[in-house]
From TrEMBL:
Name of the featured protein: Polyadenylate-binding protein
Record's keyword terms, sorted: RNA-binding
InterPro entries named among the record's database cross-references: Euk_RNA-bind_prot (IPR050502), PABP_HYD_C (IPR002004), RRM_dom (IPR000504)
UniProt KW RNA-binding keyword: yes
One MF term in the entry's GO annotations: mRNA binding
Sequence ranges assigned to domain RRM in this UniProt record: 21-99, 107-186, 349-426
Pfam families assigned: MLLE (PF00658), RRM_1 (PF00076)
Originating species: Paramecium octaurelia
Listed SMART domains: PolyA (SM00517), RRM (SM00360)
Amino acid sequence: MQTKEIHQQIPPQTTPQQMKTIIFIENLDQGISEDYLYRKFKEVGEIQSLKITKDKITQKSKGQAFITFAHPDSAEEARKKFNNQVFIRNIIRVKPYFNYHIADKKANIFINNLSEDADILELEQEFSRFGTVLSVDIHRDSQGKQLNYGYVQFEKKEDADNLIKRIMNHPITHKGKLLKLEQFKAQSERKIESSSIYLRAFAKPLQQKYFEKDKVIRAIEYGWSLIIKEYFTKHGQQVKDCFVKIDFHTRQPWTMISFESSEQARDNLEICEKQRTHPCINSGAHHALELINKHGPPVNSDASQAFTIAEITQAFKEMAQDHNDTFKGESENFFYNMVYSKNLNPDDRLILVQNIKEDVTKEQIQEFLSRFGKVIRLTIRKTKNPRFQVQQCFVHYQTLEDSKRARSEIYDDKNEEIIKIKKAFFKDGHVMMNILLSKSMRKEFKEIKKQSQSIFQNPGGRQLLQPPFGGNLPMIPPQMPFPPGQNGMRQMPPRGGGGRGGPFPMVRPQNLRPPPMNTKPIQLLPNKVTPPQTFIQEFSDYALVQSRMEDFLKIPVIDQRNVLGNLLFQKVFDVVKDKEATKKVVGMLIDPSQFEIGDILNMFEDSQELQTYIDEGLSLIKEETQK
């Protein structure tokens, strides 16, 4: 058989039985060719296909290959004979081929606490006692060294369940190590069920003089870890790990405590929520020194002692006599949370407050927000959009109750004092307050919002914005869609209504009714509505809107839409090349039910976004025309 005859890809849909005939090879030297592999591996059996994977652009080998044998026994022999052998310069790894995408994820078991010399074939043999094993994999670092964890994939979920039940009473050991097994969970699930808590700024700031001696700082961190571990041991809770560090900016300690289960972590977090502290951090420098004497100083990576008792004793005695002893665990800005993934989990205590007036100071807004609860941290900055001269702030409340109270009471329209402060601190007295979503959630929400704003969305058969009355009105030039004498923008008619042409629709104030449907000329009611022409002429160019944004945002919102509609008309007309279609599209773009003023302003900045909305508008017009 020639290699050119076996130069084919692995079938995308491979059954479990077929997978037993395939091996996957890693860490191949760049100089290895398919001919080389064929000559080596044909020793163990008939080869049906062989493929070295290559980079699509450079066509260089990725150091990986697939080989399909005629019989499963040959694939098994290849793994035994060639795994961890040197091919040219590299030690290759020969593994069973496994198509993860077609496997039952619930039949996957996570293996932890593996020894450095764990053997995949021996593990596979051990796990095969419980069912059909599709794959055993041990993870490696960037240098190819085996790590202490991996996975075993069974063919059926029942087999994986049998293994988990078995180890409850009969644990499995391998190479002298007791294996820790649990059913596989996706990364997001493992993060949600975190078993660690994070306590920050749980004691008063250390005096600056202690930072002049690194060994004293190390001793304080070590003392805190011993105090925390002792507390939980006395209360019958097993702590897997406790890591304490002093923040050099705040000079306050923080710790991450890992428990045996997520339930223990949540229970201790509940204590923090109720007490605004935790008993594990209430002690004293004298007791910390006693514990260090009892357990002895820690050692460095080179096995040397981090410090001696004599080097730290004086500093600890001074702290014990100070009423601000850091080991008392007293703090004004204590903060806590589960150790979650920041990308996945929002913290309900972190609030984004928007629409703050430009002249409001950080101190003023903090004093106002502190009336609802304990504020741990607050930052304020101007909004990124230079068109809006307002500020926004991020406020972190200490407890969930503080956050809930703030989000409730700040909108209390019966509290005259709060209403008065809101008028003084927020533009138009309007507060915008929301929980700050995580990065991935913000991205997801942005996509949802974009979809909901899309004018192509027409779930209820939404009518195009058409004039609610007929009449032969004069045509208008592209640059001025609002002809003199027309006041207000016509509203969207009820379903089934419509009209015969007409000028570009303008938004009509809520308190005005459109003229009755008749053929008589339109008569304007004098002194009832200020014609928008003054504003249209005042802001006849978008550059004027930009340069006078503060003045522009002071005019009625209804007129802001009319001005922007007038300016958008030419942009849309340049694309559509049809006056009537342009009127309809622009009518959609300034529709209050579809877009906020800020969204319309962004259309002038993002031509691609505007083009998308134009295309969707034209599609909707076409659909309505065909009905």
